[in-house]
Every structure is written in C-alpha cells, then in structure tokens.
C-alpha cells in the first residue's frame, strides 16, 4: 500500500496503468475527484478506487485506456467476440520497451495490434501458463543458481515447453534521497534500524530479487521498517523516496532517472527476458517479434533511449 492517500497524477497513472495526460483528462472531465495543494494537483487513493469500481462495467473500447504509444492495455474491455479475436495477442510486462515493441508490431507487414497486460514477472508467467497471455516478460533472480528466469520458468510452466528470449540487460539498484544522506551502499543496509524502505508488490521481479537476498542473509521482512508497504511501479517507488516518504526503495536505473530528487545506487545488471510457449514459436506473431528484435532499427531505438544493454537482444537463451 502507499504511505499516504494523497497521490500525484503520475502515481495515479501508475495505479491505473495509463498515461499521466489521461489522468489530467479524467480530472478535467470530473471523472476522478481531485484537489490542489498550492499549484500541485492531488488525488486521494479512495477516489482512484471509486473510479476503478465505477468503470468495471464498461463494455466498449475507449481511448481513455491507451498509453502514450497508443497501445491498448489489458484494462480495455471488448464487446464482441470478433473484436477480441482481432486483438487476441497479449504481451505481459511493465517495461516501456514493450510499448515500442507493440508499435513496431503494428507496422510489421500487414500489422498486428497487441494488447499489454501490466503484470509483474511472477503473475505474468502464471498468466502465460493459464493461456491468458501469449508472451510474458520476466526478471526473476534465483538465489540458489544465481541465474535469471530459467529456474523459475522450469518450475512455473510444468509440462509446458517454452522458449526464453533475451530482451535487454537493465541495471537495478537502490533508490535513495538526493546526495544519499543515509550513506546506503549495499544489501547489509537492510539490517539498519535507522532505514525505512518502500517495497514493490509481491510477484514483481524487483520484490523477488530483494526477498531472495533477504532469505540468504537470514533477514525477515518484519524486521525491516516499511517492508509491508508496497507500490506497483518503479516510478511510484522513486516518487515516494524523492518526497521523503522512505529512505530506500528498489528499481531499475532508467525509471529512477525520470524522478527529480532521487539518486541511484547500482547493485547488479538484471536480465529482462520474454517467454513464449514452444508450441507458438512458428506462429506469425512470434516470427514478427523475433524479426523486430533482430532488426537494426529497433535495436538502435532502444539503445538510443539509454539504460539498456542490447548485446544479447533476440537471442534464445534457453528452451525448457
């Protein structure tokens, strides 16, 4: 849960999985209650929940539920079976490079519109197992093997052969206040009693990385101040650290760079991969993804954003 109930427009956007501009439009149309603190707009968490409950019965496609790349999200509800079949390819994951991938898919040959499901790694892989998505991304670190993703995929997709495709490497680490006043530097700082953290939600790759390290260090979550408080995105974590709501959070470097008042302490490069069922490897959608990942144009666009290691992009790193 969030530390308090007063949310910024960006935090509302993170919760609803929409763009910040869409939040402002919803506020302008008085579909979400808001108020001002000086020149700053704030929204209470209870009003976000009220908006979510109010819109659960929507039956038609609405542009309100598209992100800044114009890609439909999993919040879109379809009225007809024909429409659902037309947009039946779903990619699970939260990284912004998936928005770019969806844009390239829309331009590929005859074009393919892909839905986005903004789930964390664990829930995304489970959705793949259940057949709710056709591709899932993950960055889950296993403390026993020191590997990313492969050990989890073998266990989470029983009887389901899968292909694991490398997308990018991303630097992950600690979010701390500007200037790092608490001198936070490594995992041992979680033992300190003067540190308050803000956590990611269960099932996210960042949460798994933290919990695996805590397990190896024999540290229980309830021994850490703020461990039970959760946010659903890197940006929300960084925002809370920036405004003094916590001393320490975790996330990737790219997201941290978008928030003023936060410094980044690098810990390790994580591997961000895409998982597809082997039975789907020869389908046009998978072929399109593989072609795009190996294309110079896509690789250069991702490299130009900064913060990503593209050296293994498109490589099949394992088959289970």
TrEMBL record:
Ranges for domain Helix-turn-helix: 7-54
Stretches assigned to the PBP domain: 110-293
Pfam families associated with the record: HTH_17, PBP_like
Record-given protein name: PBP superfamily domain protein
Species in which this protein is naturally found: Clostridium luticellarii
NCBIfam families: excise
InterPro entries: HTH_17, PBP_domain, SinI_DNA-bd
Gene3D superfamilies tied to this protein: Periplasmic binding protein-like II
């Amino acid at each position: 849960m969030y530390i308090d109930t007063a949310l910024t427009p960006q935090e509302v956007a993170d919760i609803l999985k929409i763009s910040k501009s869409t939040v402002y439009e919803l506020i302008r149309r008085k579909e979400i209650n808001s108020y001002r603190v000086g020149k700053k707009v704030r929204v209470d968490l209870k009003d976000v929940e009220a908006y979510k409950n109010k819109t659960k019965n929507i039956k038609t496609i609405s542009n309100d539920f598209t992100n800044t790349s114009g890609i439909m999200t999993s919040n879109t509800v379809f009225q007809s079976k024909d429409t659902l079949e037309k947009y039946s390819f779903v990619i699970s994951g939260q990284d912004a490079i998936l928005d770019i991938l969806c844009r390239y898919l829309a331009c590929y040959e005859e074009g393919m519109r892909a839905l986005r499901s903004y789930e964390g790694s664990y829930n995304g892989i489970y959705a793949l197992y259940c057949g709710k998505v056709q591709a899932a991304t993950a960055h889950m670190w296993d403390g026993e093997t020191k590997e990313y993703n492969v050990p989890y995929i073998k266990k989470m997709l029983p009887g389901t052969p899968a292909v694991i495709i490398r997308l990018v490497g991303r630097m992950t680490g600690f979010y701390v206040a500007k200037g790092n006043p608490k001198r936070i530097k490594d995992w041992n700082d979680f033992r300190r009693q003067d540190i308050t953290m803000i956590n990611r939600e269960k099932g996210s790759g960042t949460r798994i990385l933290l919990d695996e390290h805590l397990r190896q260090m024999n540290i229980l979550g309830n021994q850490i101040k703020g461990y039970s408080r959760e946010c659903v995105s890197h940006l929300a974590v960084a925002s809370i650290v920036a405004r003094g709501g916590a001393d320490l959070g975790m996330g990737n470097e790219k997201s941290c760079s978008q928030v003023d008042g936060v410094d980044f302490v690098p810990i390790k490069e994580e591997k961000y991969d895409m998982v597809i069922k082997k039975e789907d490897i020869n389908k046009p959608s998978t072929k399109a993804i593989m072609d795009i990942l190996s294309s110079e144009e896509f690789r250069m666009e991702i490299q130009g954003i900064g913060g990503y290691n593209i050296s293994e992009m498109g490589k099949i790193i394992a088959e289970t």
